[in-house]
Amino acid sequence: MTSCSAPGVISLYTIVIKRSLFLPALSRPHHAGSTHEQNAKPGIQRQYTGYWLIASKTNIDALDKQLMVDAVILDASIGPPHGSVAGQPIPPAHIVASACFLLTIPETYCNLNGVMHGGAAGVIFDMFTTCALGPVARPGYWDFMGGVTGSLNISYLKAVPKGTMIHVHAHVYQVGRTMAGQYLQVGYFPKS
């Protein structure tokens, strides 16, 4: 297990997403007797697999495809995350699932000013919060592409320059038959 904790990470963005399910939903999955790690990271991997199955049927070279290549899954949990970032608030105990990713911002995600474009931030957040549902997803219940983003609010706290390595922490705080709520934090490693 790799911890999501990283001393010195500075917060860049916070967002809240409400996602609506557009496929028939099943009852909430039960993970009785499983530890945080047993099903969590494989759940994230299943979300990636679902994405690549869909992507393999298209000839589109989209931003989300590059994101799924570039991102590294660091950690995942069912329930609250294993650790928290120094200087950041500890996520509440009612977190349903969480995931942590590492990503270096390439030039293709940036605008003419050499900083990450707000549209790229939206794609990053949408994809990673979808993946964070992986630990509690199953076929027909929040599997990849099983929902649409109904609301996406982003608070931009600081520009992210090209080449910046970021930590992305996605937390699912609510999941039901037809709606899920997620919260995401992005931080970066300041150059020493």
From TrEMBL:
GO terms for molecular function: fatty acyl-CoA hydrolase activity. Residues 113-180 form the Thioesterase domain. Belongs to the thioesterase PaaI family. PANTHER family: THIOESTERASE DOMAIN-CONTAINING PROTEIN, THIOESTERASE SUPERFAMILY MEMBER-RELATED. This is Thioesterase domain-containing protein. It comes from Phyllachora maydis.
